[in-house]
């Protein structure tokens, strides 16, 4: 199949479409005229994306041979954009097996090309000395190159874009710490790349000739140190010059704790990012330009990449974030609303309020909870719960929101994830904090038989073992303040605007 201009019209499979890069690649492929099929473990997470009605979505997992086989049917180009980072000590084994399945099934299905986004590995560093994260990325690339399917492996270092983990880490470190005692890796030379250049290379790789089967280094126009990047970010953001003092005593493990305390990026993600910066990661070649030519002004330099990312953040036009992908090990089922719920004990805290406002005004407040908008009750209690979660390796309360006003299924929202939206009526959140059980929070905007607006709120907890029961009863004395205050202040905010709700929230805190 071809376009009217004679360029190929390809059928593309995208794995990792719920993640940071995959969620941005899909619309780029569609705009290039290709057909797209997405393989997702939880298809409903793609439901609210603006491009959802233009793609085919199939349920599956790259670690499941049967679902990968079915997803490869009639595919020309298969994008491999997933990894098992953060799933535990065995993530390298998981990544290895998933890559083997993907390559085998691509070859069996007659796929014309596999495209993989990996990490840029340092020169002259033996594999055993690489971080587990970089070593696994390199191994996955090698497996796909040996699969018998022509493969393009794109190797990138730090990716700069609104919502990327690397950018969020850089942003929060620089904005929150005018004086920093930093790990020695801030002096390591790196070659960052703007996310829009990454996407351009990914889309262009689909059209490479069949004889191309190799890895390409991809980077931006500048080679800098991480310290340089922090100073350049400060300049781009209009901040005073930062004082940065590198010290040799902060190991990757210690520095990941430091990053976790200051930024929204949790320790299990911060550590591989920090470990990857121990060695210099600079491109050895720019051969990709022979197949995906650089337009004028590309590759983009660090300063422009930072400005573009900041502009997106300030305009709340962040389409995907590092937290778009689910937290490994987070609960997935069963749902507390299933008619055949048979999960044993289910503790429930219910709150209802009559609201002197329209259901639409109430829904605006409901959909705006979290992030900078807060949770409308006892801010200190929410903050302490977030700090406690970070201390035990959880995501904490700092992930915030992708968009200040509108949510979609699959969005991370502080230490929750949006599980369901019936827009104008229901918002259901699933807890991703560390808990001895499963937890949900539901918020409803409804009208009763008399035509009055009603706010209904339900917190649910399904305990795991004795510890789970003990947890519920230990926190239940605080529910009147936390959940009761939340219901009251949301109703007040809907009736009198956010300022009235926040004033009540501050009064509750006092």
TrEMBL record:
This is NAD(P)-dependent oxidoreductase. It comes from the Bacteria. PANTHER family: NADH DEHYDROGENASE [UBIQUINONE] 1 ALPHA SUBCOMPLEX SUBUNIT 9, MITOCHONDRIAL, NADH-UBIQUINONE OXIDOREDUCTASE 39 KDA SUBUNIT-RELATED. It holds the Pfam family NAD_binding_10. SUPFAM superfamilies: Bet v1-like, NAD(P)-binding Rossmann-fold domains. It comes from Streptomyces chryseus. Residues 16-157 form the NAD(P)-binding domain.
């Amino acid at each position: 199949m071809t376009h009217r201009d004679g360029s190929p019209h390809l059928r593309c499979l995208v794995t990792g479409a719920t993640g940071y890069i995959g969620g941005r690649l899909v619309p780029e492929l569609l705009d290039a005229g290709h057909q797209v099929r997405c393989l997702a473990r939880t298809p409903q997470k793609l439901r609210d994306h603006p491009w959802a009605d233009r793609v085919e979505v199939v349920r599956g997992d790259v670690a499941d041979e049967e679902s990968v086989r079915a997803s490869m049917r009639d595919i020309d180009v298969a994008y491999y954009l997933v990894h098992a980072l953060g799933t535990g000590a065995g993530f390298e084994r998981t990544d290895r097996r998933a890559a083997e399945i993907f390559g085998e099934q691509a070859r069996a299905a007659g796929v014309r090309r596999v495209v993989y986004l990996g990490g840029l590995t340092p020169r002259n560093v033996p594999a055993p000395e690489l971080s587990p994260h970089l070593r696994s990325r390199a191994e996955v690339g090698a497996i796909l190159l040996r699969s018998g399917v022509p493969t393009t492996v794109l190797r990138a270092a730090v990716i700069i874009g609104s919502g990327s983990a690397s950018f969020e880490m850089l942003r929060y470190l620089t904005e929150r710490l005018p004086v920093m005692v930093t790990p020695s890796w801030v002096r390591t030379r790196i070659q960052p790349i703007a996310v829009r250049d990454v996407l351009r290379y990914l889309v262009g790789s689909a059209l490479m000739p069949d004889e191309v089967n190799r890895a390409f280094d991809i980077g931006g126009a500048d080679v800098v140190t991480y310290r340089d990047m922090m100073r350049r970010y400060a300049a781009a953001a209009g901040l005073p010059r930062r004082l940065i003092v590198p010290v040799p005593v902060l190991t990757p493990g210690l520095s990941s704790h430091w990053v976790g305390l200051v930024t929204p990026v949790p320790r299990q993600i911060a550590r591989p990012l920090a470990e990857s910066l121990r060695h210099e990661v600079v491109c050895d070649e720019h051969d990709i330009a022979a197949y995906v030519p650089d337009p004028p002004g590309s590759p983009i330099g660090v300063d422009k990449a930072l400005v573009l990312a900041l502009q997106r953040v300030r305009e709340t036009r962040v389409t995907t974030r590092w937290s778009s992908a689910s937290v490994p090990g987070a609960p997935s089922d069963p749902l507390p609303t299933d008619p055949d719920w048979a999960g044993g004990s289910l503790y429930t805290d219910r709150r209802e309020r009559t609201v002197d406002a329209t259901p639409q005004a109430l829904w605006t407040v409901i959909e705006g909870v979290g992030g900078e908008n807060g949770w409308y009750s006892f801010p200190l209690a929410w903050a302490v719960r977030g700090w406690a979660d970070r201390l035990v390796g959880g995501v904490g309360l700092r992930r915030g929101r992708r968009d200040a006003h509108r949510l979609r299924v699959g969005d991370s929202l502080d230490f929750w994830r949006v599980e369901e939206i019936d827009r104008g009526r229901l918002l259901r959140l699933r807890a991703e904090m560390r808990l001895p059980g499963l937890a949900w929070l539901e918020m409803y905007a409804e009208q009763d038989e008399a035509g009055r607006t009603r706010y209904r709120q339900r917190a649910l907890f399904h305990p795991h073992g004795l510890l789970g029961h003990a947890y519920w009863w230990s926190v239940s004395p605080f529910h009147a303040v936390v959940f009761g205050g939340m219901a009251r202040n949301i109703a007040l905010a809907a009736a009198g605007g956010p300022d009235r709700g926040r004033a009540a929230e501050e009064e509750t805190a006092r």
